Amino acid sequence: MISLEINNKSYEVDVAPDVPLLWVIRERLRLTGTKYGCGIGMCGSCTVHIDGKAQRSCQTPVGDAQGRKITTIEGLPEDHPVKKAWVQEQVPQCGYCQSGQIMQAAALLAEDPHPSEEKVLHFMDGNLCRCGTYSKIKSAIRLASKGGSRS
Questions:
Q1: Model pTM above 0.90
Q2: Among 90, 62, 72, which residue's Cα sits nearest to residue 150?
Q3: Angle at CA 73, nearest 5°, toward 72 and 74?
Q4: φ/ψ (deg, to 5) at 88
Q5: Residue 3: beta bridge partners?
Q6: Are the CB atoms for 67 and 3 separated by under 8 Å?
Q7: Apex CA 80: angle with CA 13 and CA 20, to 5°?
Q8: Is residue 42 within 8 Å of residue 1, measured between CB atoms?
Q9: CB atoms < 10 A from the CB of 130, how many?
Q10: Which of 75, 135, 129, 130 is nearest to 107 (CA)?
Q11: DSSP H or E segment with residue 106
């Protein structure tokens, strides 16, 4: 049995420790906000926070996540500045990558509340958006870093 803390709730799952965390989150626990994109850690759709850091859940064995604090998009509060900015800036088109984008951006702002544009570009570089909403993503991150008000 693997013990996990996800979104401040405790779970026990009967899986092998090498099963990707993504599959436990989606298939066993039915927290489907975390998306499967590429399966090789290159697109960022499966991004979650592990101990506050953005991690690719498709590349994280569930055994490595045991005893650590995991947050999925469902666990990020609705009033989180990044979520509010995403809505205000109308970022999504198809929306598939957005949970990973939001989780990556929230980790960035937790680390650096007022990042430079260069740091935003570097930190978000591994999160892909097939719809190309990158300029809106950058605008939303900028808005969230200002506390959610346009200036």
A1: yes
A2: 90
A3: 90
A4: -60, -40
A5: 12
A6: yes
A7: 25
A8: no
A9: 11
A10: 75
A11: helix 98-111
Residue keyed to tokens 């500045």: 81
Structure tokens at 122: 């570097």
Structure tokens given for 109? 């702002």
Assigned token pair, 74:
């469902």
pLDDT digits (tens, 9 = 90+) for 90-144: 999 888 999 999 999 999 999 999 999 999 999 999 999 999 999 999 999 999 9
Residue whose tokens read 């506050």: 52
* DSSP 8-state code for residue 113: S
How does DSSP assign 19-75, residue by residue? SBHHHIIIIIS--TTSPPS-SSSSS-TTEEEETTEEEETTSSBHHHHTTSEEE-GGG
Which helix (H) or strand (E) element contains residue 3?
strand 2-6
Q: How far apart are CA 86 and CA 71, in angstroms?
A: 18
